[in-house]
Specification:
By secondary structure, the protein is mainly α. The protein contains 3 helices and no strands. It is elongated and about 60 Å long.
Length: 115
């Protein structure tokens, strides 16, 4: 059986690593922006979070990525509040249906690895 060409495989791995770095950078930027927003809300005498806006974030991620998007949004929201250390596993997070988000949108199958 022939060995696959290493060059294209290494290139694909490098591309994935670059994308991972971009995602991590975006997460850090989001956490910082959420911290800034929380500080502004505190200074204005408002609650730190606005549940209606957080629910919109959950809906947006769910529409784009299906139930995995809801899980991701929950993790981002919690991390932005500095509460990520309280999450011990993904199993402890509520399901998408807990937020009135059912089903998966067309195209969400792109989140499932093909065999």
């Amino acid at each position: 059986m022939p060995t696959p060409a290493i060059g294209p495989i290494d290139q694909a791995h490098r591309r994935l690593a670059e994308l991972d770095d971009a995602v991590i950078d975006a997460i850090h930027a989001r956490i910082e922006a959420q911290g800034d927003l929380i500080a502004l809300r505190r200074a204005a005498g408002l609650p730190e979070t606005e549940l209606a806006r957080e629910n919109e974030v959950l809906r947006r991620y769910n529409e784009a990525l299906g139930s995995a998007g809801t899980t991701l949004a929950l993790l981002l929201l919690e991390r932005g509040r500095g509460a990520a250390s309280r999450i011990t596993s993904l199993a402890s997070l509520p399901s998408a249906s807990a937020f009135g988000l059912a089903g998966t949108p067309p195209g969400s199958d792109r989140l499932t690895p093909s065999r």
